[in-house]
Amino acid sequence: MTTLLKSVLFVLLILSISFPTESLGNDIDTQFSRSINFMMSNMIRQDAAPGSVIAAPSRQHPDYFYFWVRDGALVMESAMDLYQSGRLTSLQKQKLQKFFLDHIMFTQTTQQNALKAAGLGEPKFFVDGRVYSGPWGRPQNDGPALRASSLIRLLSIAIRENWPQLEEMKKILYRANSAEASLIKFDLEYTAKRWHDLNVDLWEEVYGAHFYTLMTQRKALALGSQVAQAFGDPFAAKYYLQEFYRVTQELNRFWDPSRGYIYATLSGRKNISSKSATLGKSLNKSQLDSAVILAVIHSDIGEGLFTFTDDRVLSTFQKVVDSFTALYPINQNNQVAAAIGRYPEDTYDGYQTNSVGNAWVLITAGAAEYLYRTASQLALAPSIRISQANISFYSKTAGLENLSVGKVILRGSDDYNRVLQNLMIQADRYLARVMLHANPDGSLSEQINRRTGIQQGAPNLSWSHAGLITAKLARDRALSNAMVKGSRGKK
Ligand code: NOJ
Ligand code: NOJ
User: Fold this and answer.
1) Where are the domains of the chain?
2) Integer Cα distance of 199 and 139 in angstroms
3) pLDDT tens-digit map of 423-456
4) Per residue, what are the HEC states of 290-341?
């Protein structure tokens, strides 16, 4: 045998040990590069202002040819994940860097235009940066928070890489003592002062206080406090931190231990600080909503509360999965994981609001991302303690048998390794679900029809591709973690 052949066989052997279930094979790499191309073609185009992101290319049925603040910020996060992943060609990196700089200028335009309209919570703009002034659910206060967090991250990348434009960027993005506020500080002040205001949720349907929105605000205030400190603005730093704690306290009210899940929305309260939360009668929803899972993956700040492995989050994840598994006919195929939608009572079919809801690509990919990141986090934890709240997650999703409340599973034990391994397998099965229904060319719409499995709603939704990309990169990060990887060697 030649040495070359030997070393090839050796590599193959290693691979087969570390990856007992290569269910995804190369398909995920193919989908990944296609999604990068689709996403980038929604970011860099002749028919939109530089730095703008179209939600989707369709101008009718449905018309998604707009810039949404939320979608834009989440695309920015996904693009920054890519930028930092080492997975791009240098041409792609260059294009993204140019886009990031353009995006700062575009944000300056949209912020200024928003001030002349309903304020920084304006959710939707024409692709040239003018406010969309037709009737719409406004304000949506997750927007300024997501925008602030993404710009803070961009600033920190520019600092780390010492971009030539850095000084200019700093002036535009964060100035401590300037009457004319800077982009990040603008959004932080708005968030710190206005987080208790009721507003419209990320699905643009419900007026109330929302777990998703508050989580994005909490993250912005945490990052904001750090950036203020670093930019010589200590009073602001203190103020943002104080509001961060208040938002955190508020978030705790969304957990309902008797139902075993975190509510998406609380409303109908006269006084936000009153202890007893009353659900708005008008909501007519179970309040079980994938927005809670998205909140966790979009707003993680690497500390215990409402992070991936928080019992309340694990429990909510399982309830969401159980409800959609039963609800959508396509989920009778259980070769792959369940396709997940927004909330069980959803009636938006991607075109009309008075119809039946479907599975969503960005949410099903979000379920995968949630599990990859949960596995990565567990790989660092000393142990798992089985509780009333997490027992169904650890038995159903993590596949452990003979569990009882109070049982402690130590890191390094067979059971612990089994959890890590099964979470990775489950996560892969969510990505396999997305790929099962993707169009042959890898294009992804907003939704997956709950009966036929066919793509539906806005075609090539930027957020669908952004979600697939962040999930895939979370997978790469989990697999580069020795502990998670090791667990996959054992059957
Ligand atoms: C109704 C949907 O339910 C909502 O989520 C969407 O944003 C709007 N229509 C606009 O498409
Ligand atoms: C409908 C979604 O509900 C909303 O979150 C999103 O911003 C818009 N579509 C645009 O993609």
Assistant:
1) 1-43+308-486, 63-307
2) 6
3) 999 999 999 999 999 999 999 999 999 999 999 9
4) CHHHHHHHHCCCCCCCCCCCCHHHHHHHHHHHHHHHHHCHHHHCCCCCCCCE
Average pLDDT, the chain: 92
Task: Evaluate: CB of 475 within 6 angstroms of ligand 2.
Answer: no
Query: Which pTM does this prediction carry?
Result: 0.93
**Residue 201 annotated as catalytic:** yes
CA nearest ligand 2 atom 10, residue = 55
Residue 360: enclosing H or E segment and its boundaries?
Answer: strand 359-360
Element (H, E) at 415: helix 414-437
Q: What number of CA atoms fall less than 13 Å from residue 259's CA on the CB side?
A: 14
Q: How many residues does the chain have?
A: 491
Kindly state if the Cβ of 254 falls inside 6 Å of ligand 2: no
Q: How far apart are CA 110 and CA 130, in angstroms?
A: 7
Structure tokens at 330: 């396509």
Alpha-carbon radius of gyration of the chain:
22
Q: Is the CB of 27 under 6 A from ligand 1?
A: no
Are 69 and 146 within 8 A, CB to CB? yes
- Ligand 1 center–CA 353 separation, angstroms: 7
233 tagged catalytic: no
Q: What distance in angstroms lies between residue 115's CA and the mean position of ligand 2's atoms? A: 22
The model's pLDDT over 266-312, given as tens digits with 9 standing for 90+, comes to 974 323 333 333 444 345 578 999 999 999 999 999 877 899 999 99
Which of 75, 78, 125, 203 gets mutated to test ligand 2 (max ligand atoms within 8 A of its CB)?
A: 203
Considering only CA atoms, which residue is closest to atom 10 of ligand 1? 204
CATH number of 1-43+308-486: 1.50.10.10
Confirm or reject: Cβ of 202 under 6 Å from ligand 2: yes
> What atom of ligand 1 comes closest to residue 347's alpha carbon?
3
Say if CB 95 and CB 44 are below 8 A apart.
yes
Residues of the chain with pLDDT under 50: 11-21, 268-282, 490-491
How many other β-carbons are positioned within 10 Å of the β-carbon of residue 435? 18
Cα 136 to averaged position of ligand 1 atoms, centre (Å)? 9
Q: How much distance in Å is there from the Cα of 203 to the middle of ligand 2?
A: 6
Identify the CATH assignment for 63-307 out of 1.50.10.10, 1.20.950.20, 1.20.82.10, 1.10.760.10: 1.50.10.10
Same fold, 1-43+308-486 and 63-307: yes
